[in-house]
Amino acid sequence: MKERWMKVASAPNEVQALLMEGLLRESDIPVLIQRAPGFDVPEFLAAGPRSILVPTDFLEAATEILSDTTGLGSW
Fold first, then answer.
1. Buried b (16+ CB within 10 A) or exposed e, 9-35
2. What's the pTM?
């Protein structure tokens, strides 16, 4: 069965996305960063919004960690 990934948060740029990724990985939560449609070209470099994805089994824990430390949804 294929593992399903869900969006847990959004980040305004790559730097913020990497911060969230680090927080989740410290808690042993698998995480993927995905560029938003329209921003998936190399010329944008670190600019542009990112989606933070985690496996559905980790969604609740990831939401709690990010809301406690980054103010999830504040941007």
1. bbbebbebbeebbebbeeeebebeeee
2. 0.78
**What does residue 35 show for φ and ψ, rounded to 5 degrees?**
-70, 145
pLDDT tens-place string over residues 31-53: 999 987 766 666 666 778 899 99
Kindly list the domain boundaries of the chain, sorted by start residue. 5-69
Residue 65 structure tokens: 């960690």
* Segments of the chain assigned E as strands: 5-11, 32-35, 50-55
Both structure tokens of 39: 């921003």
Task: Determine the CATH number of domain 5-69.
Answer: 3.30.70.790
Instruction: Please identify which residue in the block is written with the tokens 């969604």.
Output: 59
d(CA 57, CA 47): 30
